[in-house]
Amino acid sequence: MDDLTLRDFVEDELEWEPRIDAASIGVAVEDGVVTLMGHVSSFAEKLAAEDAVKRVKGVRGIAQEIEVRLTGRPKTDDDEIASKAADVLDWDVSLPDNEIQVRVQNGWVTLSGEVDWNYQRDAAKWRVSSLPGVRGVSNAISVRKRASPSDIKARIEKALVRHARTEASGIRVSVVDGNVVLDGVVEDWHDREVAEQAAWAAPGVVSVEDRLRLG
Questions:
Q1: Packing angle between helix 118-129 and helix 189-201, nearest 10 degrees?
Q2: Residue 182 and residue 211 in contact, taking contact as beta carbons nearer than 8 Å
Q3: Contact 190, 55 (CB under 8 A)
Q4: Which domains does the chain have, with CATH numbers?
Q5: Residue 160: per-residue pLDDT
Q6: 23: which residues sit within 8 A by CB, 6+ positions away?
Q7: Which of 19, 22, 48, 61 matches a 20 to 30 Å C-alpha distance to 183?
Q8: 23-39 confidence digits (pLDDT tens)
Q9: 112 near 103, Cβ under 8 Å?
Q10: CA 116 to CA 167: how far, in whole Å?
Q11: 160: burial class by Cβ within 10 Å (0-12, 13-18, 19+)?
């Protein structure tokens, strides 16, 4: 697919996504890498724009240059954001009690602490991303080590066979101390995300390095 066609597809997908005001977002494409520019009214909208681009076939990479402009609403103080973030994390029964810490500076939220699963790490980020006044989220939450490298590798490879649309044998998995490296070639961005999600779903995974290439 040529860059002009890909740009049209991306712009159409942004227009299609109801969580986004696409009129304030510009799109540039070079060699399959999409650059998003402009501004949005919330950090959640910025994440939604990135998710929309990932759904488009042919996207090889994304450069996020969207600015969050909190227009049309009163400024929210950092201590108020921190208090609301702590509340929404406490209310989520899927998250461990008293394991996640919140720090806020100039509207930017930093999450730290330790959880048992990566889905909990992701859930914590999504819970705070839509709060009023949030300009960005740094997710420094770590995942506890819980399994041997050989067990992690076997579980990931089985998950790839179950879920990936592409030939799972084309994806190589290596594990050292809970740190997973994925290498090989996949068909599109969706397959790449499926492989990465499968890796994160294995117990004991503390990080995933995605070296997969789009073929």
A1: 120
A2: yes
A3: yes
A4: 3-68 (3.30.1340.30), 78-143 (3.30.1340.30), 149-214 (3.30.1340.30)
A5: 79
A6: none
A7: 48
A8: 999 999 999 999 999 99
A9: yes
A10: 30
A11: buried
In the beta sheet, which residues pair with residue 174? Answer: 181
Q: Looking at the chain, how many residues does it have?
A: 215
CB 110 within 8 A of CB 86: no
What's the pLDDT tens digit per position in 143-168? 887 767 778 888 888 887 876 555 56
Q: Are 206 and 179 in contact (CB under 8 A)?
A: yes
Say if pTM beats, i.e. exceeds, 0.70: no
Which DSSP helix (H) or strand (E) runs through 185? strand 179-186
Q: Is 55 helix (H, G, I), strand (E, B) or coil?
A: coil
The distance between the two most distant Cα atoms of the chain, rounded to a whole number of Å, is 53
The sign of the CA dihedral 197, 180, 168, 52 is: positive
Reduce the DSSP state of residue 31 to 3 states and report it: coil
List b or e across 32-60, with b for residues whose CB sees 16 or more CB atoms inside 10 angstroms.
eebbbebbbebbbbbbbbeebbbbbebbb
Look up tokens 């299609």; give the residue.
16
CB neighbourhood size of 23 (10 A): 8
| E strand or H helix at 65 | none
| Confidence tier at 4 by pLDDT (50, 70, 90) | very high
CA 170 to chain centre: 24
> Which 3 state secondary structure label does DSSP give 28?
strand
